[in-house]
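assembly run, all chains below
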Amino acid sequence: METKNLTQEVIRISGANPKKCMKCGKCTATCPAFDQMDIHPHQFVDMVINGRLEELLNSRGIYNCLSCFACMERCPRSVEPARLIEAVRMAVVRQKENNHLKPDAIPALLDDELPQQAITSALRKYMK
Amino acid sequence: MEFSYFPGCTLKTKGKELDISARACAQALGFTLDELKDWQCCGAVYPQATDEIATRLSSVRALVAARDKGQELVTLCSACHHVIKRVNGDLANREDIRSKVNAYLKLDTPYEGETSVLHYLEVLRDRVGFDNIAAAVKNPLTGKKIGAYYGCLLLRPGKEMQMDDPENPTILEDFIRALGADPVYYAQRNECCGGYQTLENKPQAQKRATSVVDNAAACGAEMLITACPLCLYNLTQNAENPLPVKYFTELLAQALGLE
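ok done. output:
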């Protein structure tokens, strides 16, 4: 898909409106994973607006987002950065053979205490 | 009082203490959890993408089953509650999702988000009442300093979850007080522990868990309580200096003398 169309597709499936962003940076300030987000949440929103999808598709941050909704709760403009991050992650893992986590990799990651919820949630976030 | 009940994947296995203690406490406090037949795992992460339909279906099936029994639906695990409550909101408020889900499920009566979804804590607060719980306490936890760990999923987004003020919640602290203990307030009580990352990026989960537990300990907490099996795992297994962590229902069972 062309970058322009892909940008529109990401915005459409996200259900968010990045253009409402007033660039205050509160999402990044409150993100508990900000130091693991190579592209910080406020930058992420700006890059969606400007169609810089290639960089976002290849970012590490789409996997490091904690899905905790701090950015959504605290955004004064209801931009919902977490929705955009998830939409970009979906744009990656929905491609054929592009799962970020493969079921075969899971047994080596298990320990005796690990709850089923950890496996279910990882599969939902990182594979299609 | 009888409620439909959705336990979820972990409450039958690694998190069964949460299920067992919650059922025992419900019986002692005069309500029944009627487990849904053939429930399916909710998926543990709310699918935010608006075109995700299949990943919403297991939640809808649970919501429909409760509706068809004429009951409200009670959840215990924070993640199940988060997913099912938000999917229910989608079915009530989003025509695009509602029409696709109903076209797929072909129900006799289309589902439009009519089931009321309650977290067990809301049943304790709004139906039983913390005053009545305080009166039922046999072993008050006097002098115990307990930190409430809300985490991320129970309260946010506030306008959808509608359980409590997402930034300054009181429900767990009021619960702790009802059991005779002292709630400890600390800054990270409603910040994410990073549990979802434990398979994907363990150092990240370790760093977040350590930050939460260290903050609670510095504020004087002797232990933490949670409603989330993944938080419990992450805070006890991935934090550098772990504190004891229990499910809130285990604490309730102890105070009610059910152990």
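Strands of chain B lie at 2-6, 32-35, 73-75, 117-119, 145-148, 182-184, 223-226, 245-247.

The first strand of chain B starts at residue 2 and ends at 6.

not gonna interpret more than that til we talk
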